[in-house]
Write a structure and sequence with these properties.
By secondary structure, the chain is mostly helical. The protein has 8 helices and 2 strands, in the order H-H-H-E-E-H-H-H-H-H. The chain is globular, with a radius of gyration of 18 Å.
Length: 247
């Protein structure tokens, strides 16, 4: 993708608009806890999941405006949680367990919150807890949530490299046609400094270039900021590509 050499989306399932993932990390050491003698690996993984459920809900409630996936991962890395180890954002295959485990937790939390009349927005650019207007509906009958099914299936936790690459290929084949969701597009526009989605791709590109220059390490910025801008610009690029196809 032009302007974002280090960033790759990390898609899975069939509902592409909500699954462009933030870059590439080795699986953190804490994501693969070594079982103690006499302890089943599945039990260790479930302990990790239960700890993440508490930590993720706490952080989301402490940030009512929501946060993106990258910042939520960082919250899980930092005290008091320290549930994810050091990430270098370079290898999609090594990132996959971290990404999968977090989204598994988010979908489990979504089900729990629904019982109390709350909803959970799950998107790489915006994860937030909201009140539900209606309780008890999960969508149209007969329309399965492919993402939910994927992330709640723990057998998908470890996949070979070629399977991960196939997901990315399917993403690029389908994401251009479906486009990002409206909340995801707005969150990307906000990241580039807009109050609303800009009126043209050229305007978005100009804002992206200015923001990248300001975030350059030589000007006091950092790599994480530039990567976040890359993600936002990628989402807006997909948005305007979809608009062009519809005209």
């Amino acid at each position: 993708m032009a302007g974002s050499p280090d960033w790759q989306p990390f898609p899975v399932g069939g509902d592409y608009p909500n699954i462009s993932f933030m870059r590439n990390t080795p699986a953190p050491r804490d994501c693969h806890p070594q079982p103690k003698q006499g302890t089943q690996p599945d039990a260790i993984l479930e302990q990790q999941i239960q700890h993440l459920l508490v930590a993720v809900e706490h952080e989301l409630r402490d940030s009512p405006e929501g946060m993106d996936e990258l910042n939520l991962i960082k919250r899980m890395q930092n005290p008091p949680w320290r549930l994810f180890g050091k990430l270098d954002f370079q290898d999609p295959q090594n990132l996959y367990p971290t990404h999968f485990l977090l989204f598994h937790v988010l979908y489990r939390l979504k089900d729990t919150l629904a019982e109390g009349g709350e909803s959970l927005t799950i998107s790489p650019m915006r994860i937030t807890i909201d009140r539900q207007d209606t309780i008890g509906g999960t969508g149209l009958p007969g329309a399965p949530d492919n993402l939910r099914s994927f992330y709640l299936d723990l057998s998908q936790y470890e996949l070979p490299k070629d399977a991960i690459q196939q997901m990315m290929n399917r993403f690029w084949a389908g994401y251009q046609n479906t486009g990002p969701s409206r909340p995801e597009t707005l969150a990307a526009a906000n990241r580039l400094g807009f109050d609303a989605v800009p009126e043209s791709f050229i305007v978005a590109k100009q804002a992206f270039r200015r923001a990248v220059m300001q975030a350059h390490p030589d000007r006091g910025g950092d790599k994480d900021s530039i990567q976040a801008l890359n993600e936002a610009f990628a989402i807006l690029k997909a948005h305007f590509s979809q608009m062009m196809e519809q005209t």
